Amino acid sequence: MIDLVVARDLREAGLRWRPISGDAFAIDRPDMQGELFTVSEMTIEPHEFDTGTILGFNGTTEWALDSLALEDALWLPREDQLRELLGEAFRSLQRTGGGFRVEVDDPDAIGGIAAYQDADAATAYGRALLVRIRSAVG
Description:
This is Pilus assembly protein CpaE. The protein folds into two domains: about 20-75, no CATH class; about 80-135. Helix content is about 25%, strand content about 35%. The protein has three helices and nine strands. The chain has helices at about 5-15, 80-85, 120-135; strands at about 25, 35-40, 45-50, 50-55, 65-70, 75, 90-95, 100-105, 115-120. Helix 1 (about 5-15) runs parallel beside helix 3. The chain starts with a helix and ends with a helix.
């Protein structure tokens, strides 16, 4: 699963989340550290309103939480979602001795390819996407 710091950096860089069933998220507050949630029509369902998206907690009797504004949730994108967001720039994912290496097209890199490594594949993808988002904005 993607590192929370990288997920937070992606959000701050401008990555927007449109929740769908199966998406993982955290509530980004100190008192909720280590708690992870999954969007599911059975328990946590996104509700669209003119004022924004609310995540409704359906039937969670063990909690006193009925809903959560989307901006209070930290999306934890999966490998496949991150790979899709990289689009045609994605070249490869390789297992290394220390984890995973993601290669993407980068015209500013030597040889036109940039590589991002991490112990976790989703985090390596996230690091590559973060650089692309920041360079597109900057």
